[in-house]
Amino acid sequence: MILSNGIFLLLLQTKDKAMEAIQSFxxxxxxxxxxxxxxxxxxxxxxFDLRITEPNREPAVAAAAxxxxxxxxxxxxxxxxxxxxxxxxxxxxxLTGMYIIMKGCYDVEQMRQLTMECLEWILxxxxxxxxxxxxxxxxxxxxxxxxxWECRRYLDRLTNDFHSEYTKLHVTLDDGKVFAxx
Length: 182
What we know:
two-stranded antiparallel sheet
């Protein structure tokens, strides 16, 4: 389907009906900047989009660096003062950022401060935790130096060029349903 603003939207067809669009796919990724965004608000849970690179304009984070970042961020968050509220820490499939799901009412500025503390901690590490065959499903896929390079760059962006508002992209489907933001 072509929307009025020229953006294409693909609906998956099932045997009985079209599936609804996932709201995060309605974000205009051509204008999305690195930063921290609220991706979803569910009952008692908030999903944060930690966007590390600029989608479709900069290279994605290399898989080995992202894997190391996942291990390090998960370790830090699950040992931090907010550890009881951490539900999930993991990479986006597109390798342009991480998702963190938190219980409670954390806001973007709180997540920014926590993420900056985490990045500083990562930069001080000499090893990636849990990189043995017994503790990791792909233990050879790690790159701490590149992970630190990405963390330094992201920390600089969170400090000097912070973005936290998704690009407003309103999508109206043929059946009248409206999606806005993710």
